[in-house]
Amino acid sequence: MKRWTACVAVLLLPAAQAAGDGPLRERARAAMDKAAAFFRSISTHGGYVGILSLDLKKRYGEALYERAKPTQIWVQPPGTPSVGEVYLRAWRATGEKRYLTAARDVGRALAWGQRTTGGWDHRVDVAHLTPQAARPVRRGTHCTFDDCITQGPLRFLMDLDQVLDEPWLTESIELAWKHMLAAQFPNGAWPQWYPLRGGYHDYYTFNDAAINDCIAVMLKAHRLYGKAEHLRSAKRGGDFIILSQLDPPQAGWAQQYSHDLKPAKARSFEPAGVCSAVAVRNIRTLVELYLATREEKYLRPIPKAAAWLEKSKLGRNLWARLYEVGTNRPIYGDRDGKVHYTLQEISRERRSGYSWQSSYGVPAVLSTYRRVREIGAEAYLAARSKPPSAAARSSYARRLEPTVERIIASLDAKGRWVTGGMIHCATFVANFGTLCRYVELTKPAS
After folding, report:
1. Dihedral of CA 249/251/254/257: which sign?
2. Hey, how many other C-beta atoms are within 10 angstroms of the C-beta on 24?
3. Looking at the predicted structure, is the pLDDT value of residue 177 above 60?
4. How much is the pTM?
5. Integer Cα distance of 262 and 273 in angstroms
6. Residue 293 DSSP symbol
7. Do the Cβ atoms of 323 and 266 come closer than 8 Å?
8. Strand-strand pairing, 418-419 and 357-358
9. H or E, element range at 81
10. Are 45 and 93 in contact (CB under 8 A)?
């Protein structure tokens, strides 16, 4: 497909238009252009760190305790891949080539930061990426599936590949596929890190949706490219979900399993236990596998898991994250490595730094399962893929207008959204994505 030459396009906006005059759709488009122009100006060879100081001298990853070097970019979503996704969405919504160029730059940064084995780590160095570079020079070995760090870049690169046809892009995608297939255990699980590095990093890992995201990427790869090996990989992942489900009355799943298939602890504050958040993600993944394959075996574990979730409620739409194996008592962890039985026992830092109690999406995922069971896979997929009516689009757009107004108003004169005195990738992705959504909803009928 056509190759777009990298460039930065800066749109000078009339102050009145940016400030609040004119139709909201036009002001949203103008805010997108202004915000993207600034954000692209602070990229590192097309990639981004998680947090930047206003003077651009201090660079961080996910949080302020993770310093980044001047030539490093952050891979963990909502880092570089997430920025690429919203640029690509903006191009689809507006047709403006500057957004496709921006997405291409992100893709090159990720391809050049890819490890030699084919995956990604939290941060990568792209000092060796130059505008005229034709092929990446890759470094490093160990890669992680934690926090969608390998799955996120691959998902974005596959999306980019639907509109760009370039050798470096094809090579990067195929190398990542090879890495993911090599990392999958014979029983269908994935570890947290690969190549294996020892300790809990080698365990079969559901925590932070590692296995779930791997299955989702393989299903996406099969939808886009039609290769049987990707569907086989996704199904093997589903077979591991079935294999690792605990017996009733605790028919949930652990956050991670040792290689003898027993619930295992990970970090000092993550004791072995049955996890409600993992159960929700596994139910969702099993439903998606059923929709993709029509194989009933992927739905059979769900009623038992639903029964365990129902009896484990702490209150209305409230669950503990972890329950003790055997007793089903809620348990909590701290940096002392001990198991605690009340939130009050653990330190304030761990109480606020980890999710111990929530709804975890239990009602929504069980509602989805029941709906699929009620109307069948074909009807459910047809309803899900059906575009919303003009009336529904208009209604949603109206509900979104106050949020869009706030986002536009919070954009400063330089095109920045400043949070806590810092520039955050997460804020840009969230705000820019909302503006894209509004532009999509208000697109005039052709």
Report:
1. positive
2. 17
3. yes
4. 0.93
5. 10
6. H
7. no
8. unpaired
9. helix 80-94
10. no
Interatomic CA distance for residues 375 and 367, integer angstroms: 12
Count how many Cα atoms sit within 13 Å of the Cα of residue 341 in the half-sphere of its side chain: 5
**Do the Cβ atoms of 17 and 29 come closer than 8 Å?**
no
61: number of CA atoms within 13 Å, CB side?
Answer: 16
d(CA 323, CA 277): 11
Residues in the chain: 446
Whether pLDDT at 338 is above 60:
yes
Which residue type, as a one-letter code, is found at position 411? L
Judging by beta carbons within 10 Å of its beta carbon (0-12, 13-18, 19+), is residue 314 exposed, middle or buried?
exposed
**Alpha helix segments (H runs only) across 270-322:** 276-293, 301-311
Q: Enumerate the β-bridge partners of residue 285.
A: none
**CA distance to 10, 150, 168, 216, 339, per residue, from 119 (Å):** 34, 5, 15, 16, 34
Confidence at residue 18, expressed as pLDDT on a 0 to 100 scale: 40
- What DSSP assignment string belongs to 137-178? --B---EE-GGGTTHHHHHHHHHHHTT---HHHHHHHHHHHH
Q: What are 216-252's pLDDT values in tens digits?
A: 999 999 999 999 999 999 999 999 999 999 999 999 9
User: Which residue is it, tokens 């490219």?
Assistant: 225
DSSP 7: -
